[in-house]
Amino acid sequence: MTAAVLVVGTGAAVGVHLEHAAEVARRLPPASATSEQVLRVYLHAAEAHDCAVTEALTASNAPGSPGQSWCGQRQPTSWFDEHPDLLAHRNVGAVERIPADERGGVAEECIPVDVTETNMTGAEPGTLRGWQFCFHHTEDGWRLSDQGYG
After folding, report:
1. Model-level pTM?
2. Phi/psi at 73 (5° precision)
3. 92: exposed, middle or buried (C-beta count within 10 Å: 0-12, 13-18, 19+)?
4. What is the pLDDT along the chain (150 residues), one digit of tens a residue?
5. b/e code 115-125 from CB counts within 10 Å (16+ = b)
6. What is the DSSP letter of 55?
7. Which residue, of 48, 52, 54, 60, has the fewest CB within 10 Å?
8. Which of 34, 35, 32, 54 is nearest to 44 (CA)?
C-alpha cells in the first residue's frame, strides 16, 4: 500500500510539472515570430518577473543561461549570484542582422534597447542606453543568445 501511495504522489507531481510547462508554452511567441516580437515578449516577462518565460526564451548555450536570465527577485545562493532585475525598457531600436561568419558560425539578430535595471554585476543601478539583446534562430524560434555592449 505504501508503494501505491508513493506512485500516486509521484504521478501528481509529474502532472503538475507538465501542466506548468504547458502554461509556460502558451505564453511563448510562436516559432514563426520575428526576433523583435520575441524580444518584446522577453522584456515584458522580465519586467513582470516571469522567470519561466525569460528562461524559456534564453538559448541553452547563452552565457550564464538560463539561470542568469533577466527576471529579478530570485533568492541568491551566494554573494556572487547575479540576479538582474529589468525595471523598465524603452526605445527598442532597429534589428541588426549579423552574418554567421562574423559570429562563429551562427547568424544573429541584435536589437538595442534602453533598459532600466538593478542588481546587475558590474553596473550601477539605472538606465543602460543601447543595451543589445542578440538572438539566434532555433527550431523553437528566435532565442536570446547574448546581450550587452559590443
Report:
1. 0.78
2. 55, 25
3. middle
4. 444 443 444 444 444 455 567 888 899 999 999 999 999 999 999 999 898 999 999 988 776 555 567 876 655 554 455 567 888 999 999 999 999 998 778 899 999 999 998 877 777 888 999 999 999 999 999 999 988 886
5. bbbebbeeeee
6. H
7. 60
8. 54
Distances from the Cα of 40 to the Cα of 9, 34, 37, 58, 111, angstroms: 39, 10, 5, 13, 11
What CA–CA distance (Å, rounded) separates 115 from 138? Answer: 25
Q: How far apart are CA 127 and CA 16, in angstroms?
A: 38
